[in-house]
Amino acid sequence: MTLKIEMLRCFCTVAQTGNLSEAADRLGRTQSAVSMTLKQFEDHLGKKLFVGERKNQLSVLGEQVFEMSLKQVRQFDQTVQSIETAAHAANGLIRIASVPSVAALVFPSVLENMTRRFPGAKIELRDADTRQVLDALADGKADIGIASGFHPVKGVKAHPLFEDQFGLVCAADHPLMTKPERPTVEDVVTTSFVRNTLCDLIETPEFVNALDDVDVTIHNTQSLITMVGTGKWITLLPQTIARIIPENVTFRDLPDLPDRRQVYLYVKESSRFDGLIDACSAFILNLKLT
């Protein structure tokens, strides 16, 4: 028997819901059909994916299979969506993936400019972390990418876009923000610090050594800003973030933190709509982002 994507989708839905009835409702199938599909899946593997007869606890193998299956189902759905969009993109298609801190600055201008210059062109915008941006380019799911740091990708050209310094980001009334003297790296790492993925770009030894003692990491930028806005947490982010954070959160540079984040524009060398992609990338390169 050949494993099919719908078999993986069925298993993932049952694993997520924890019961056959709700999974069947979500899938638009009968409960017996879902049960049969799971049995076929387990028979093919020769191993059980759930503990006992109830479907509310995955086996050790089930945990591993769920992680891999969910990734494949999501990739399949994204690919189908991209194929359908491309099929209906008679006037062109632009797909841009960007790290959130830059997306908030670039996307509004890009959308206004490209829809005005190229009426009828399809535009897909997504924010993602640097690794996801690079994966989207490599997998053919994005034509243009904006990411932190330089990372060679086959068939993709990298253009320096801008660079900005790292600094303290916290509530406007936080003691480190209101103190007359500028805070230092030591002040930051000895307070309630929240780590984020951009912290990995900082090379100042004092800060790098202190990261091992940080217990909280937040990957989502919006959630991170919300957390520091409570006044209980602080973090380090590039200065560009100061242009998109709410009024109750602010940015302050640190005298002993020289690190800067380099941002690159990544453009596919070959695309179905080369003219459109070239026009869009040229527009982004000419934006005043710092």
In words, what does this structure look like?
This protein has 290 residues and is of the alpha/beta class. It has 3 domains: 5-85, Orthogonal Bundle (Arc Repressor Mutant, subunit A); 90-162 and 262-285, 3-Layer(aba) Sandwich (D-Maltodextrin-Binding Protein, domain 2); 164-259, Periplasmic binding protein-like II (D-Maltodextrin-Binding Protein, domain 2, 3-Layer(aba) Sandwich). It is 44% helix and 18% strand. The chain is built from 11 helices and 7 strands. It has helices at residues 5-17, 20-27, 31-45, 60-87, 100-117, 130-138, 175-178, 185-189, 205-210, 221-229, 274-285, and strands at residues 93-98, 122-127, 144-148, 156-171, 235-238, 249-253, 260-268. Strands 1, 2, 3, 4, 5, 6 and 7 form a 7-stranded mixed sheet that branches. Strand 1 (93-98), helix 5 and strand 2 (122-127) form a beta-alpha-beta unit. Helix 1 (5-17) crosses helix 2 (20-27), helix 1 (5-17) packs across helix 3 (31-45) and helix 2 (20-27) crosses helix 3. The radius of gyration is 23 Å and the shape is globular. It starts with a helix and ends in a 5-residue tail after the last helix. The mean pLDDT is 90.
CATH superfamily (homologous) name of the largest domain: Periplasmic binding protein-like II
**In total, how many beta strands?**
7
Computed over alpha carbons, the radius of gyration is: 23 Å
Please state roughly what percent of the residues sit in beta strands, choosing from under 5%, 5-15%, 15-25%, 25-35%, 35-45% or over 45%.
15-25%
Distance between the termini: 57 Å
